[in-house]
Amino acid sequence: MINYRKILEYHFDNVSQRTISSSIGHSRNTVSEVIKRARERGLHSLSEIETNAWLEELLFPEKLAVEKGYYPIDWEKVHKELQKKNVTLALLHHEYATEAREGGKIPFAYRTFTEKYGNYAKKYKTTMPIHRKPGEILEVDWAGSTLQLTDRSTGELIPVYLFIATLPYSQFSYVEGFLDMKSTNWLMAHIHALEYFGGVPETIVPDNLKTGVTKPLRGEPILNEAYRELGRPLSNNYRS
Asked: Domain residues for 47?
């Protein structure tokens, strides 16, 4: 059996692949593939709970599935498909099960499928991004910190409040400064941001701030009328 743990212990201690291969008795191709899989899964260190069996399931899940007679699951493909609009785990499991049966293989049950994906998401991809879709969401808020202008005549420092609008998928952002955070500037900032981006997202997500929300209720914020009116011609949804 391949000693995955020993290979990675040496690797994380900066031992060369050639030395690892000769020390453990595995081919350099095997050592290279184990290290490659660990890097792809976001594994950068080991703890006591990560046994050799756990590492085998982490690095080569398809191998164990085939040995047990189950149709292997391509988790990288599942993860990418889930980022598409209207794609769910239920849909992906249905497609997977159909493909398995057509090939005369045994599919994992839906519950097992979802549990395994949950483990993949938590353990296999330690730096997994939050699922975002292009053009889906625009996050807007006033920045916590302010800038300052200096009045040349009096030397008075005048606070400048920064409006920030960000498209989470690309992190493309628009920033504009205002002398106050009143509703008029809040609405004008939205218009300028949308003009800058050259389009309108499906949903605008503001913070629970007074210029956008009049009375935040438990789970159901109420938008002020001016803010609601801004969204109507844009066919926009707001979510707080």
From this structure: 1-53
